[in-house]
Amino acid sequence: MSIASTPAIPPRVSGDGALRIAQADTENVYRDLTNYRIALALEPDGWHVDYQLKSPTAHVAGPTIASRA
Fold first, then answer.
1. pLDDT computed for residue 17 by the predictor
2. Could you say which of 9, 38, 42, 62 has the lowest number of CB atoms within 10 Å?
3. Residue 6 CB contacts under 8 Å (≥ 6 apart), including other chains
4. In b/e form, how buried is each residue of 23-58, taking b as 16+ CB within 10 angstroms?
């Protein structure tokens, strides 16, 4: 059986749960997340939560959190 034909395993955490966990962890470091646009995606290796700055002129990248839950 190849990786391509391996059936996907459903995540153990819902999208809302993954977002809550990511928010709690990220707020401990970045404090105020109002300047970030949040993207949540379920990838083959788990949930990915990406924080992108809303300002197009900002030159600092936001945090990316990947959860294998």
1. 93
2. 9
3. none
4. eeebeeeeeeeeebeeeeeeeeebbbbbbeeeeeee
